[in-house]
Specification:
Length: 516
């Protein structure tokens, strides 16, 4: 039995390993605030949300499938949260039965273990079915209508009634009726558990009078006889124990899958509510096939920055026009990194089948999102910063695939402009020829000038806006490359911050004692 909430044909695999570079991606794109908002304090939801964002889905059909399901969840958030709570309570109740025998070495112990837990899970499924039935007219998506149909077909009242009746009969602490046959050598064979006939009233009294009964009582301290009876009981319970264990496992897997896949939608509801409170624009993106190379958006903001500041950041509007390379330049602290992160976050959220933090967002699906951000200075680096950058880029090239998206932030800025531009030019040209889309934030004018002259049709040039008085608007706008040097501005700011000669004279003398 499958859940079908995230995929049409397969469940979410929580045991799947993270894609290569996941930890770097989480750090560079600052995804922790998004995951925290989705979790709402629930560690299990956070785990599922992390998997969904990192794994995504490379199918336009699956993205649209999830979007429709999420729209259902947004129309009935109370029902979705109630179902998730019912499932979580069921799992916690099953975990609280710590006293159950963990060993299932005999049919009797298997039945004892499985029967108790199966009863708990059946109660949970009944509660889920009841909640969804009350709101079934509000669900329009294929995902949730399929789920309701599965619950009606496999877990209807007749099924749950039959299960409870069987569980009561299999209570191994009560008397059991066992049917056996004798071989010619007087050996017992054909052990079979049978259900005793229910007789009430006059039929029960008459049966005791008319039926011939043979009985035998086990003598006290007859250990061998007790062992024989225990063996007979286990032989008769082998078949029922096997069937009950299979039923228990099926119901358990259904409960686990349903809770995991529903956790994704609960996390999305939590994030939607949080971003709405802040005033962030939200919309469902339009996915395109990878070969179309689409990237256009209106009023896109960085979701994690909004969550950190608790207010709406500056939004940006861009149409890349199918160009595989975007070069972003401009003054420091002008919003370039925020812009880069906003695109990466939106791409991952779209690939996960979620909404994005924008009035409108369209993008081609990718075979992965990779980041190459400038590394901070570290004292324990065994190599130079440029060598470290080249090593990280080499690892990315080893793993990146055609149709992927690479976000580069001030890459190769640890060397001079001429050398850094030459390194970047060779790498960018190779990646573009292999079908990789690249967005590169850089202060190098030479690399921008080369692409302007040689491959202008492949490149979109953007620039962080800066007013004449030096004010940053944090808006990224289309602009042709220009050689701008903000070093003079920075130099004057440093001079203004330095103390005057009189202030220096008034300052207390430095400690001239020799160092120890």
């Amino acid at each position: 039995m499958r859940v079908y909430l995230l995929f049409k044909e397969r469940p979410l695999d929580l045991d799947a390993g993270d894609p290569w570079g996941s930890e770097t991606l989480l750090r560079d794109l600052d995804l922790e605030p998004i995951l925290d908002a989705m979790a709402g304090g629930d560690r299990f939801i956070r785990e599922v949300a992390r998997k969904a964002l990192l794994l995504g889905t490379p199918s336009v059909g699956d993205i649209l499938y999830r979007q429709e399901a999420l729209k259902d969840a947004l129309r009935s958030p109370e029902a979705i949260r109630a179902v998730y709570k019912a499932l979580t309570d069921t799992v916690n109740k099953a975990r609280s039965l710590w006293w159950l025998p963990r060993s299932r070495s005999t049919p009797a112990s298997t039945i004892s273990y499985s029967a108790k837990l199966l009863e708990v899970y059946i109660e949970g499924i009944e509660r889920v079915r009841e909640i969804l039935r009350e709101r079934r007219t509000g669900f329009k998506s294929e995902a949730f209508t399929t789920l309701i149909r599965v619950l009606d077909e496999y877990f209807d009242e007749e099924y749950t009634r039959a299960v409870r009746e069987a569980l009561r009969y299999l209570d191994i602490y009560e008397a059991l009726s066992i049917k056996v046959s004798l071989s010619r050598s007087a050996e017992l064979r054909g052990f079979k558990l049978i259900r005793p006939a229910r007789r009430t009233g006059l039929k029960r009294v008459l049966s005791r009078i008319t039926e011939r009964r043979y009985s035998w009582s086990l003598p006290p301290r007859d250990d061998a006889g007790a062992k024989e009876l225990e063996d007979i009981k286990n032989l008769a319970l082998e078949g029922p124990a096997r069937i009950l264990n299979i039923s228990y496992q099926h119901v358990l897997e259904f409960i686990k899958s349903l809770r995991a896949e529903l956790a994704f939608y609960v996390g999305a509801l939590n994030l939607w509510d949080r971003l709405r409170e802040i005033g962030v624009p939200l919309s469902f993106p339009i996915p395109h096939e990878a070969l179309q190379r689409v990237l256009r958006f209106k009023d896109l903001v960085e979701a994690s920055l909004a969550l950190r500041m608790n207010r709406r950041p500056v939004a940006n509007t861009i149409d890349a026009g199918g160009k595989p390379l975007i070069l972003v330049s401009g003054p420091n602290r002008g919003g370039k990194t925020v812009f880069l992160r906003s695109i990466g976050q939106a791409q991952l959220m779209m690939m996960a089948g979620m909404f994005v933090a924008a009035e409108h967002f369209e993008s081609s699906i990718t075979r992965g999102v990779y980041t190459h951000f400038r590394a901070e200075e570290k004292a324990n680096l065994s190599r130079g910063r440029l060598e470290e950058e080249l090593a990280r880029m080499s690892e990315i090239v080893d793993h990146i695939k055609p149709g992927s998206l690479l976000l580069m932030n001030e890459s190769f800025s640890s060397t001079n402009e001429r050398e850094g531009s030459e390194i970047a030019r060779e790498i960018l040209c190779a990646l573009i020829e292999k079908g990789v889309r690249v967005i590169y934030v850089t202060h190098f004018y030479e690399i921008q000038r080369w692409f302007l002259e040689k491959r202008r049709s492949d490149t979109l040039f953007l620039r962080a806006e800066r007013k004449e008085d030096g004010t940053r608007t944090y808006r990224i706008l289309p602009s042709m490359p220009e050689r701008s040097n903000y070093a003079e501005e920075l130099y004057h700011k440093i001079l203004e911050a330095r103390p005057t000669s009189k202030a220096k004279a008034a300052a207390p003398p430095q400690d001239q004692s020799p160092s120890k």
